[in-house]
Write a structure and sequence with these properties.
two-stranded antiparallel ribbon
Protein backbone atom coordinates (compact mmCIF):
# COMPACT_ATOMS: atom_id res chain seq x y z
CA UNK A 1 0.00 0.00 0.00
CA UNK A 2 1.89 3.05 -1.27
CA UNK A 3 -0.02 5.28 1.16
CA UNK A 4 2.06 3.85 4.01
CA UNK A 5 5.19 5.58 2.71
CA UNK A 6 5.26 8.51 5.14
CA UNK A 7 7.89 10.37 7.12
CA UNK A 8 6.42 8.91 10.31
CA UNK A 9 6.56 5.33 9.05
CA UNK A 10 10.15 5.80 7.85
CA UNK A 11 11.40 6.79 11.33
CA UNK A 12 12.21 3.23 12.53
CA UNK A 13 13.42 2.10 9.08
CA UNK A 14 17.09 1.74 8.14
CA UNK A 15 16.71 0.53 4.54
CA UNK A 16 14.00 1.41 2.02
CA UNK A 17 13.79 -0.81 -1.07
CA UNK A 18 11.78 0.41 -4.05
CA UNK A 19 10.99 -1.98 -6.90
CA UNK A 20 8.06 -0.38 -8.72
CA UNK A 21 7.35 2.32 -11.21
CA UNK A 22 5.71 5.58 -10.29
CA UNK A 23 2.20 4.99 -11.61
CA UNK A 24 -1.05 3.43 -10.48
CA UNK A 25 -3.82 2.46 -12.89
CA UNK A 26 -6.93 2.66 -10.70
CA UNK A 27 -9.25 2.76 -13.73
CA UNK A 28 -7.53 -0.07 -15.59
CA UNK A 29 -5.56 0.13 -18.80
CA UNK A 30 -8.26 2.21 -20.52
CA UNK A 31 -7.97 5.14 -18.07
CA UNK A 32 -5.00 7.48 -17.58
CA UNK A 33 -2.57 6.42 -14.87
CA UNK A 34 -1.97 8.43 -11.71
CA UNK A 35 1.33 9.18 -9.99
CA UNK A 36 1.36 7.50 -6.60
CA UNK A 37 4.31 9.32 -5.01
CA UNK A 38 3.08 12.61 -3.63
CA UNK A 39 5.33 15.63 -3.06
CA UNK A 40 5.19 14.87 0.71
CA UNK A 41 6.32 11.30 0.06
CA UNK A 42 9.16 12.49 -2.17
CA UNK A 43 10.36 14.88 0.54
CA UNK A 44 10.03 12.13 3.19
CA UNK A 45 12.23 9.74 1.19
CA UNK A 46 14.86 12.43 0.54
CA UNK A 47 14.90 13.43 4.23
CA UNK A 48 15.12 9.74 5.24
CA UNK A 49 18.29 9.28 3.17
CA UNK A 50 19.81 12.65 4.07
CA UNK A 51 19.45 11.73 7.74
CA UNK A 52 21.30 8.43 7.32
CA UNK A 53 18.87 5.95 5.77
CA UNK A 54 19.67 3.69 2.86
CA UNK A 55 17.75 3.48 -0.41
CA UNK A 56 18.10 0.39 -2.58
CA UNK A 57 16.48 1.49 -5.84
CA UNK A 58 15.81 -1.49 -8.09
CA UNK A 59 14.94 -1.91 -11.77
CA UNK A 60 11.97 0.34 -12.61
CA UNK A 61 12.38 2.60 -9.58
CA UNK A 62 12.89 5.67 -11.81
CA UNK A 63 10.19 5.01 -14.38
CA UNK A 64 7.15 7.27 -14.47
CA UNK A 65 8.01 9.36 -11.40
CA UNK A 66 7.53 13.14 -11.25
CA UNK A 67 10.03 14.72 -13.65
CA UNK A 68 12.73 16.81 -12.01
CA UNK A 69 11.28 15.99 -8.60
CA UNK A 70 13.34 15.48 -5.46
CA UNK A 71 12.93 11.69 -5.62
CA UNK A 72 14.61 11.38 -9.03
CA UNK A 73 17.34 13.80 -7.95
CA UNK A 74 17.92 11.54 -4.95
CA UNK A 75 18.22 8.39 -7.06
CA UNK A 76 20.61 10.23 -9.36
CA UNK A 77 19.25 9.62 -12.82
CA UNK A 78 16.38 9.48 -15.26
CA UNK A 79 14.46 6.60 -16.79
CA UNK A 80 14.64 6.58 -20.58
CA UNK A 81 13.02 3.24 -21.33
CA UNK A 82 14.12 -0.28 -22.08
CA UNK A 83 14.50 -2.68 -24.93
CA UNK A 84 12.66 -5.96 -25.41
CA UNK A 85 13.13 -8.95 -23.18
CA UNK A 86 16.46 -10.30 -24.38
CA UNK A 87 19.69 -11.81 -23.16
CA UNK A 88 22.46 -9.26 -22.52
CA UNK A 89 25.74 -8.99 -20.64
CA UNK A 90 26.26 -7.14 -17.37
CA UNK A 91 29.86 -6.02 -16.84
CA UNK A 92 31.38 -4.89 -13.54
CA UNK A 93 33.23 -1.62 -14.19
CA UNK A 94 34.37 -1.05 -10.58
CA UNK A 95 35.49 -4.33 -9.05
CA UNK A 96 36.81 -2.62 -5.89
CA UNK A 97 33.49 -1.24 -4.64
CA UNK A 98 31.75 -3.12 -1.79
CA UNK A 99 28.58 -3.51 -3.92
CA UNK A 100 30.46 -5.30 -6.71
CA UNK A 101 33.09 -7.19 -4.72
CA UNK A 102 33.00 -10.85 -5.67
CA UNK A 103 30.55 -10.26 -8.55
CA UNK A 104 31.56 -11.60 -11.96
CA UNK A 105 30.35 -10.46 -15.37
CA UNK A 106 27.14 -12.30 -16.24
CA UNK A 107 24.47 -12.61 -18.89
CA UNK A 108 20.80 -12.43 -18.09
CA UNK A 109 17.43 -12.59 -19.85
CA UNK A 110 15.79 -9.35 -18.79
CA UNK A 111 14.74 -5.87 -19.91
CA UNK A 112 17.85 -3.79 -20.54
CA UNK A 113 17.01 -0.49 -18.90
CA UNK A 114 18.92 2.49 -20.28
CA UNK A 115 18.84 5.09 -17.50
CA UNK A 116 20.74 8.34 -17.82
CA UNK A 117 22.67 9.19 -14.66
CA UNK A 118 22.93 12.78 -13.47
CA UNK A 119 26.40 13.99 -14.52
CA UNK A 120 28.83 13.96 -11.61
CA UNK A 121 26.19 12.78 -9.12
CA UNK A 122 26.73 9.02 -9.21
CA UNK A 123 29.54 6.48 -9.25
CA UNK A 124 28.91 3.89 -11.99
CA UNK A 125 29.52 0.29 -10.91
CA UNK A 126 27.97 -1.78 -13.72
CA UNK A 127 27.10 -1.50 -17.37
CA UNK A 128 24.92 -3.63 -19.60
CA UNK A 129 25.60 -4.42 -23.25
CA UNK A 130 23.04 -5.91 -25.63
CA UNK A 131 23.86 -8.01 -28.69
CA UNK A 132 22.89 -4.96 -30.77
CA UNK A 133 25.60 -2.91 -29.05
CA UNK A 134 23.37 -0.85 -26.73
CA UNK A 135 25.48 0.05 -23.69
CA UNK A 136 23.88 1.52 -20.57
CA UNK A 137 24.68 2.02 -16.89
CA UNK A 138 23.35 -1.00 -15.00
CA UNK A 139 24.15 0.10 -11.47
CA UNK A 140 25.50 3.01 -9.47
CA UNK A 141 25.89 4.37 -5.98
CA UNK A 142 25.88 7.78 -4.39
CA UNK A 143 25.96 9.37 -0.97
CA UNK A 144 23.38 11.96 -0.01
CA UNK A 145 23.81 13.69 3.33
CA UNK A 146 24.52 10.92 5.86
CA UNK A 147 22.74 8.29 3.74
CA UNK A 148 23.43 6.09 0.77
CA UNK A 149 21.64 5.22 -2.47
CA UNK A 150 22.33 2.16 -4.63
CA UNK A 151 20.55 1.70 -7.97
CA UNK A 152 20.54 -1.65 -9.81
CA UNK A 153 18.88 -1.55 -13.24
CA UNK A 154 18.20 -5.27 -13.74
CA UNK A 155 15.37 -7.14 -12.13
CA UNK A 156 12.29 -7.51 -14.34
CA UNK A 157 12.32 -11.26 -14.94
CA UNK A 158 12.43 -14.38 -12.80
CA UNK A 159 15.69 -15.23 -14.59
CA UNK A 160 17.22 -11.96 -13.39
CA UNK A 161 16.05 -12.34 -9.79
CA UNK A 162 17.25 -15.95 -9.64
CA UNK A 163 20.68 -15.23 -11.12
CA UNK A 164 23.38 -15.77 -8.45
CA UNK A 165 25.39 -12.70 -9.52
CA UNK A 166 22.31 -10.46 -9.37
CA UNK A 167 21.49 -11.87 -5.94
CA UNK A 168 25.03 -11.00 -4.79
CA UNK A 169 24.52 -7.46 -6.08
CA UNK A 170 21.23 -7.06 -4.20
CA UNK A 171 22.72 -8.36 -0.94
CA UNK A 172 25.90 -6.30 -1.35
CA UNK A 173 23.83 -3.23 -2.29
CA UNK A 174 21.64 -3.60 0.80
CA UNK A 175 24.68 -4.10 3.02
CA UNK A 176 26.40 -1.02 1.54
CA UNK A 177 23.26 1.10 1.95
CA UNK A 178 23.18 0.03 5.61
CA UNK A 179 26.87 0.80 6.10
CA UNK A 180 27.82 -2.90 6.50
CA UNK A 181 30.26 -2.77 3.63
CA UNK A 182 33.48 -3.95 5.21
CA UNK A 183 35.34 -0.83 4.14
CA UNK A 184 35.08 1.70 1.38
CA UNK A 185 36.32 1.69 -2.16
CA UNK A 186 39.58 3.53 -2.79
CA UNK A 187 37.81 6.79 -3.66
CA UNK A 188 35.56 6.76 -0.55
CA UNK A 189 32.29 5.99 -2.37
Amino acid sequence: DVRTLTAENLKPVKLLVILRDGMLWPGGADKPPESWMTPDQERAVVRFVEEGGGLLALHNCMGLYPDNGPYLHLVGGRYTGHGPLERFAVKVVDTDHPVTRGVKEFTVADEQHTPIPDPGAVHILLESRSDEGVVAPAGWVRRVGRGRVCHLANGHTKDAHAHPEYQKLVVNGARWCLGFDGGESRDGR
